[in-house]
Amino acid sequence: MAERVPGGVGIEAINAYGGAASIPVLDLFRGRRLDPERFSNLMMQERGVALPFEDPVTNAVNAARPILDAMSPEARERIELLVTSSESGVDFSKSISSYAHEHLGLSRHCRFLEVKQACYAATGALQLALGYIASGVSPGAKALVIATDVTLVDESGLYSEPAMGTGGVAVLLGDEPRVMKMDLGAFGNYSYDVFDTARPSPEIDIGDVDRSLFTYLDCLKHSFAAYGRRVDGVDFVSTFDYLAMHTPFAGLVKAGHRKMMRELTPCDVDEIEADFGRRVKPSLQYPSLVGNLCSGSVYLSLCSIIDTIKPERSARVGMFSYGSGCSSEFFSGVIGPESVSALAGLDIGGHLRGRRQLTFDQYVELLKENLRCLVPTKNRDVDVERYLPLVTRTASRPRMLALRRVVDYHRQYEWV
């Protein structure tokens, strides 16, 4: 059994949705005539692609629905807090959570809200939710945090286009942490104001790539140092069996690991490479098939570790969450054999392998519609049936939520 501590709290269930379709990243490079020498730095195989009836609401619900389907009605009633994190809000007032709450059938007595801080937001929500659960003010309460985003990047984004993903990750928190028992009180934050990336309108993403990369590395160094000031005797190598980091693209994760090893250990180049292969590479399998899921990215990496390693004993995972703007946190938790069985029924790997693979021409055609996803429209109909042939059904995902229409700015969804 995974390590359990009486009164422990953490992740009870987790699921990822990586879009209904995908495109090989090498095909995207070739189609955009990007420099092939830069392909290897991404360390990616595919990236998720949304269909025109998918948006942040459908991504959130389609990530969370399999978790709730596996719960008893009594357990679902104990979800007292629902938080969605997103850079892809559909309204300046009405939250994504309000739609998700309805289509997930959660209790009318559940709090819900939406939070935003680039790719860090889900971790901020998770830590606040864990504090609520651990406080004991409502014994047995559970919280559901859903990170959900879409990408608005086209050819103008150059090398960021192949790296961006679409989808969501749903994390159920409670006092039966089958997936990961969190190390409460073991964390380090580092945050300051920087304009490295932004989404100033519902149609475009902008960013200073070099500034963002250096800020990521700066935050990794200082958030880990802050973690060390709270946790006696912490060592970057020996304390953590595995590392899961926010993954805009795997090459940046590798650069971050290399920087930390060079500064904190006496290891040589070969030892650093071996350590990366052992402790970090397992976290990159799923991100290499999806792309950057923004605030869900670090939790997709956690799923990747569990499904790739299938730990047979308790193992501590060090986690680094970073969001442009910027806010960051280094924290940790313990996984084990029970984590493997908790994820098995959701078959995240099967979902990712089963997505419909698109040609470059199909991708470009879909992109025209997808870039409209967040643009406010008073009335709109979505031809769901036109795109359903691109959807692959699986036993664990027999149906999905789809955007059917917008009426007087109100988005309307149906199960298909």
What's the Cα radius of gyration?
20 Å
Helix/sheet category: alpha+beta
SS elements, strand count: 17
Q: What percentage of residues falls in helices of 4 or more residues?
A: 25-40%
Indicate how many domains the architecture comprises: 1
InterPro entries: HMG_CoA_synt_C_dom (IPR013746), HMG_CoA_synth_N (IPR013528), Thiolase-like (IPR016039)
GO molecular function: hydroxymethylglutaryl-CoA synthase activity
Protein name: Polyketide TA biosynthesis protein TaF
Family: Belongs to the thiolase-like superfamily. HMG-CoA synthase family.
Describe it.
- The chain has a 9-stranded mixed beta sheet with strand order 5-4-6-7-1-8-13-12-11, sandwiched between helices. It has a 3-stranded mixed beta sheet with strand order 3-2-14. Strands 15-16-17 form a 3-stranded antiparallel beta sheet, with helices on one face.
- The chain contains 15 helices and 17 strands.
- Helix 3 runs parallel beside helix 5 and helix 8 (250-264) crosses helix 9 (269-280).
- Strand 9 (197-201) and strand 10 form a beta hairpin.
- It has one domain: 3-Layer(aba) Sandwich (Peroxisomal Thiolase, Chain A, domain 1), CATH 3.40.47.
- The chain has helices at 25-32, 39-42, 56-69, 73-77, 96-104, 121-135, 209-230, 250-264, 269-280, 287-290, 297-309, 337-344, 348-354, 360-370, 384-387; strands at 10-17, 21-24, 46-49, 79-85, 111-115, 142-149, 167-174, 180-191, 197-201, 204-207, 242-245, 315-323, 327-335, 356-357, 379-381, 401-407, 410-415.
- One of its GO terms (molecular function) is hydroxymethylglutaryl-CoA synthase activity.
- Keywords: Transferase.
- Residues 79-175 form the Hydroxymethylglutaryl-coenzyme A synthase N-terminal domain.
